[in-house]
Specification:
mainly alpha
Length: 165
């Protein structure tokens, strides 16, 4: 794409779509984990996490934890509903930047700082909450990918500002 504003909008749309998808997938967590469990479980359908190692163990353990928690305390799911809502609200701020990237350049900087803060969050609270290292790395990758997109957008905004008469 030759027009930097078009590229900025495409990259911003990717950020928006990523945030919305991340948000929407937080609503049906148990359903999603049941689907994953079917994929990771052995052909006998054994869902006992103790029978597995690695990512299969983790997926089945989280599924078991959510299933037990939701059956006894369904209101706990409301926390992930708010997580989903938060992602969608953050995406709405990027809609402003999509429409006028130069005027709302600050939205991209906030996005970068939010992405940077994913990393210490994963490394501080991940071990406290018993999150495996590989899962924390996956969480960090979301922040890193977003940062790459956002820094590219900011470099294009700088280019547009220089080229403006």
């Amino acid at each position: 794409m030759k027009n930097p504003l078009n590229t900025i909008r495409v990259l911003t749309a990717l950020v928006i779509v990523g945030l919305v998808i991340s948000g929407l997938t937080a609503f049906p967590l148990l359903y999603e984990l049941n689907l994953l469990a079917g994929y990771f479980a052995d052909p006998s359908g054994n869902l006992d996490p103790r029978a597995y190692t690695g990512i299969a163990h983790w997926i089945l353990l989280v599924r078991q934890g959510l299933e037990q928690t939701y059956s006894a305390y369904p209101f706990i799911a409301y926390g992930t509903d708010w997580l989903a809502f938060g992602h969608i609200v953050i995406a709405l701020f990027f809609v402003l930047a999509f429409r006028d990237p130069i005027r709302y350049e600050g939205v991209y900087w906030v996005g970068i700082w939010a992405s940077v803060l994913v990393i210490p969050l994963a490394f501080i609270f991940g071990p406290i909450r018993g999150i495996p290292f590989f899962w924390r790395m996956l969480d960090c990758m979301f922040g890193i990918v977003a940062m790459v997109l956002l820094f590219r957008i900011l470099s294009l905004i700088r280019k547009v500002k220089i080229e403006e008469p």
